UniProtKB/TrEMBL annotation:
This is Alcohol dehydrogenase zinc-binding domain protein. One of its GO terms (molecular function) is oxidoreductase activity. SUPFAM superfamilies: GroES-like, NAD(P)-binding Rossmann-fold domains. Pfam families: ADH_N, ADH_zinc_N. InterPro entries: ADH-like_C (IPR013149), ADH-like_N (IPR013154), ER (IPR020843), GroES-like_sf (IPR011032), NAD(P)-bd_dom_sf (IPR036291), Zinc_ADH-like (IPR052711). Residues 10-341 form the Enoyl reductase (ER) domain. It comes from mine drainage metagenome. The lineage of its organism: unclassified sequences, metagenomes, ecological metagenomes.
Length: 346
């Protein structure tokens, strides 16, 4: 079976089309014929190689996908072949203490489609039945593929881990990524007063269309912490959503209100930071980590997508044969939203 991915870890010179075995659904599993797949920053890290994470090679990339149910494994009797569906890419083992408590995101054996398993940029994907959801009627296959990973990540980070409440001052660091475009909408839906801070003012201004109340830019002469402090009228920010890591987290901490929270969902600019602990204890503030979501949170955010209260943001759509060009789109200075490939093989 043909897919898009890599045979050896490295940079963009390693990407291309690969051949992997066509999967067959086992007991409790579903095979989906992919209509659309979407890429995330995680795919770049998977390509480069993630320390401590064994990755099967050749490897197909893509954590998001939508399509048509093609085959059912033994014991799956509540889903019809031919149904239009989307995939929840977070795969817990379903048996551990965390899973039994409904906290699947804390599962010690947690896997993500396209990272720990073969991904969605191919013809067929097999996942557990519990990871398959009816595609909301208002979403196209393209939009359905663009939504799952980024919206569940942003929902858990803001609603659960960050605890955003109506009236909270919420800052989203970055404007153009799939997770940040989801976070802007979610923070507003939760009742926050939302600012988007970006190194590119044009991108921050585009975020206003997603519901942001303020568009801010920062640079070496206008540091992030000072920009956020001024925006908050020197009271500090209640919740800061940060996926950059080393480049911004220390300054995000300085901009916190008393009791404020920096929620870190990634480290695209580096994983190691130095933080002045005095800021944390004096303001009784915190840095919290968050990734993916439990099934309850996924269902919550999917309901908002189905109702239209939240909307996937798609930067660009490519045919499957142009997957290498699609993947390179991550480096575009004007990237805004998700990158989707549509599969003509279906």
């Amino acid at each position: 079976m043909r897919g898009f991915g890599f045979s050896e870890h490295g940079g963009l010179d390693r990407i291309g089309f690969v051949e992997i075995p066509e999967p067959t659904p086992g007991p409790g599993e579903v095979r989906i014929r992919i209509r659309a797949a979407a890429f995330n920053r995680l795919d770049r890290f998977t390509l480069e190689g993630i320390p401590g994470v064994p990755i099967e090679r050749p490897h197909v990339l893509g954590s998001d996908g939508s399509g048509i149910v093609d085959a059912l494994g033994a014991g799956v009797d509540d889903l019809a072949v031919g149904s239009s569906v989307l995939i929840n890419p977070g795969i817990p083992d379903g048996t551990c203490e965390a899973c039994r408590a409904g906290e699947e995101a804390l599962c010690r054996a947690y896997r993500i489609l396209g990272e720990h398993t073969q991904g969605s940029a191919t013809t067929f994907v097999v996942v557990p039945r519990r990871n398959v959801h009816p595609k909301p009627e208002r979403l196209s296959f393209t939009d359905a593929a663009a939504a799952p990973l980024v919206f569940q990540t942003a929902w858990r980070a803001l609603a659960t881990v960050g605890g955003v409440r109506p009236g909270d001052r919420v800052a989203i660091i970055g404007a153009g990524g799939g997770t940040t475009t989801a976070a802007i909408q979610i923070a507003k839906l939760l009742g926050g007063n939302v600012a988007v801070a970006s190194r590119t003012l044009a991108k921050a201004e585009r975020a206003r269309a997603l519901g942001a109340d303020a568009a801010l830019s920062f640079d070496a002469d206008h540091p992030l912490d000072k920009v956020l402090w001024q925006w908050s009228e020197k009271r500090g920010v209640d919740v800061i959503f940060d996926s950059n890591g080393a480049a911004t987290v220390p300054r995000s901490v300085r901009a916190l209100a008393r009791g404020g929270r920096v929620v870190v969902i990634g480290a695209t600019a580096g994983p190691t930071v130095e933080v002045d602990l005095r800021t944390l204890f004096w303001r009784q503030a915190s840095i919290r980590g968050s990734t993916m979501a439990n099934f309850r949170e996924f269902n919550d955010v999917l309901g908002h997508l189905a109702s239209g209260r939240l909307k996937p943001v798609v930067d660009s759509v490519f045919p499957f044969e142009q997957a290498p060009e699609a993947f390179r789109r991550f480096d575009g200075a004007d990237l805004f939203g998700k990158i989707v490939v549509e599969n003509p093989q279906t």
